Amino acid sequence: MKPELAQVKALTFDVFGTVVDWRGSIAREVRALAKDKGLRVNAVKFADALRAGYRPAMNRVTSGELPWTKIDDLHRIILDEVLARFKITTLTEAEKNNLNLAWHRLKPWPDSVKGLKRLKKKFTIATLSNGNVALLNNMAKNAGLPWDLILSAEIFHHYKPDPEAYLGAADILGLKPEEVMMVAAHKDDLRHAAKQGLKTALVMRPLEYGKGKHPDLGPEPAFDINAGDFNDLADQLGA
């Protein structure tokens, strides 16, 4: 392990795309619902459309256009818009609610659970996600994710990349920012964490957006660690 990482005591994790496969998971649920309801829909395109609404919806909160709104409720706004765009009009309210809760049931990447258990033996491991607490808790139960605690933008009423999310996580952990390492598959998340003094680990998730569609997979020397998966991360951290 690099000497400058010896002070790291906790790892905070981005979740969507980093720990769990949102695209494959959502597409499977859409595919199953479409079969049950006799719908003709491209499940992968539907999943992509839902995810594409994620950042613009959060921006509406950050800009003040919307008051603080948790991700479950933003997801429902996005879902209604995407259903209209795909001209899907036959779902009951209960079916819409259940589909919206598919985000609570996302499946982990193959290495996630084993890698997290290894890292947990040496570090405090916590989520640091824009997902709300109930969503992250239900996901952890469903997927067997062994978090020590669940930290969320909901706690701070600030979505990443606002500084309050990163600094708030360090404060709750009782640590200095440099004693916390942000782990993510998204470079912008890590760059913002680094600006607040956190250490950074990039974990490659080449299939997050589908085969051959990831925007930027290259390692960067600016990050403290570049890892192929969570087991590689554990190896590099001596866990």
In words, what does this structure look like?
- This protein is an alpha/beta fold.
- The chain has 11 helices and 8 strands.
- It has 2 domains: 3-19 and 109-236, Rossmann fold (3-Layer(aba) Sandwich); 22-105, DNA polymerase, domain 1 (Orthogonal Bundle).
- The strands form 2 sheets. A 6-stranded parallel sheet has the order 5-4-1-6-7-8, sandwiched between helices. It has a two-stranded antiparallel sheet with strand order 2-3.
- It is globular.
Features:
239 residues; Rossmann fold; DNA polymerase, domain 1; 2 domains; 6-stranded parallel β-sheet; two-stranded antiparallel sheet; 11 helices
At the fourth level of CATH, the homologous superfamily of the largest domain is: HAD superfamily/HAD-like
Please count the helical segments.
Answer: 11
Strand order of the largest sheet: 5-4-1-6-7-8
End-to-end separation in angstroms reads 10 Å
Q: What's the helical proportion of residues?
A: 40-55%
CATH class of the largest domain: Alpha Beta
What Rg do the Cα atoms give? 18 Å
What CATH architecture of the largest domain would you give? 3-Layer(aba) Sandwich
Structural class: alpha/beta
Number of domains: 2
Principal-axis shape equals globular
Mean pLDDT equals 95
The CATH topology of the largest domain turns out to be Rossmann fold
The total strand number stands at 8
Described by strand count, sense and barrel closure, the largest sheet is:
6 strands, parallel
The percentage of residues in β strands lies in 5-15%
Instruction: Give the uncertain stretches in residue-range form.
Output: none
Query: SSE string, helix = H, strand = E?
Result: EEHHHHHEHEHEHHEHEEH
